[in-house]
Amino acid sequence: MITLENVAIEQGEFRLTDVSFSIPAGAYGVLMGATGSGKTTILEAVCGLRPVAGGRILLPAGDVTHLRPSERDLGYVPQDGVLFPSMTVAEHLAFALHLRRWPAAAIRRRVGELAAMFAIEPLLPRRPPGLSGGERQRVALGRALAFRPSVLCLDEPLSALDSGTRQRMYSLLQNVCRQTGVTVLHVTHSRREARRLGDTLLRLHDGKVVRDAATAPRNPQTEA
Amino acid sequence: MPTHNTSPNPHRPPNDARFYAALGVLGGFYVLVIVALLLADLAYMATSDATEAGWMPDVARRISPWPAVARAPANVLVNLLAALAKPEIRYAIVLSLVSCTITAIVSLWVAVPLGYVLARVPFRGRGLVDLILDIPIVLPPLVLGLSLLILFQFSPRAVREAVVYQVPAVILAQFVVACAFAVRTMQATFQLIDPRREQVALTLGCNRAQAFWRVVLPESKRGIITAGTLAWARALGEFGPLLIFAGATRMKTEVLSTTVFLELSIGNLPAAVAVSMIMIVAAAVVLAIMRLAGSREWIL
Predict the structure, then answer these.
(1) Which CATH number fits the domain A2-83+150-211, given the four candidates 3.30.450.20, 3.40.50.2020, 3.40.50.300, 3.30.70.20?
(2) Chain A residues within 8 A of B196 when measuring between CB atoms
(3) pTM of structure
(4) Interior CA angle at B99 toward B95 and B104, to 5°?
């Protein structure tokens, strides 16, 4: 689960106070908000990339409010994926596993699993320049999920994609969430995207996070 | 209601030819000056008779009846060889190569962490440090040499005698200037790298050191090569601080830049120009490396 209790974030002139919300374990949470409203700031605070001035952040790893990003057991996919230009796709997928000193055979197996899950097997020896937008996002997702984190944070992952690719990604993201049981916090400005994907819908408005009125159990058959 | 396409309203600004001509003249003038300098050196060596090479009179005798077209390159070669034959100049070449390489390596060891801190870590007094790092670049070289000399007046006598007017002084004087250039290059390199990559690395499980080694450094290879070659070239050309702090003692602290000065001061112009040509070739090689490293991903 992801729980924020009265979190306050200050960044220069910009400040958010009393941010509280909760996403149940294994659920797909979507935080909607207009551009510039601060939703990326909240996401970065959850990831530990931005200090909080007050309140608590609770993840499956515990009270992570003052922990470093590396200690929070979460995967992060920023906008545009942000791949490492000098590494191959295979090295991206293996990056977190090398850090955790997994044995080489286990790393190879896991890279194979991820490549199959995200349909990027043919891309394994290639480097980021030359990959399409959809391919980059899939590699970034694979990289973030390689070490089986309990939380996945996505910052507008689909905004740069064309609508066909985006539709395919919707299915992929939902499958990943269901199969791995990871708790997702997906930040977006698109209401349609939120409705399509979210189990838990949240809205950031005037510095406050509220449950979106339209939250309802998703029915995959009614949403084509 | 008036619209935008009622009647044709042709508009013609003045011709661009004059603009391009002005750019060409201003920029081309400077390029021509540089080329003229190089050609002058070459022409001097091609026309200064090989007899001035002193110790190769029979070679000079055999060259002099040749037609000018063949004599020119032969003269250049003989003058170069005559310069290389002098043991002092050979020593200066070796000392230059060794000291510049050491300076470049030590400069990188300082410039990479310092450049990273300046590019990434906001700390109080950063503006002041920035200013201080500009000093070796703008300070007159003679002042730098003098300041080094005075600094070592305060050091213990044993240290002073081991350094001042000895080989370590050559490296130190080169380093003080070359490192400033390397730091600026590395700072610019790291600033160009998206900090979000390190942020992603942190979430994947890196601490800051691991993020630096595994993500930032591999991407900075070209910048490091550029910084290193820039430091090397700057060290090769260093003269003022060397003269004052290391002296220009033949067979001890003489490097190629002081060789030119020394040969000139004893009136041996062909040797001075010959050594200058050697330095020009070295600089050209360094430039070629920098261009190659900067133009494409040849290290991946």
Answers:
(1) 3.40.50.300
(2) 78, 82
(3) 0.82
(4) 150
